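SAMPLE LOG
Freezer: B-3
Tube label: C17
Construct: single chain, 99 aa
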Amino acid sequence: MSCNVLLVEDDDAIAQLTKMYLEAEGYQVSVISDGLESLNEIKLTQPDLIILDLMLPGKSGVDICREAREFYQGMIIILTASEDEMSEVSLLKLGLMIT
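STRUCTURE (predicted):
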């Protein structure tokens, strides 16, 4: 059985490269580029794993995490270039893995 991954990333180049690498390893990957659409997609698909950018159009990654945790208990990995330590502390309090 394959693992379903939801990648929430607004940078097309990063999204396509990440999707390509994950699919090469056998994962099924869906990509969403807008923060507002992501919560609905999480509810509909209940992915095994969410890989989430912090800075997204429509809704921030932190807000998505906070709201998703109300109905989604799966793994969420934050993929970000941000060096803001306060964001990292806040996300760790939500029980998230930061890369």
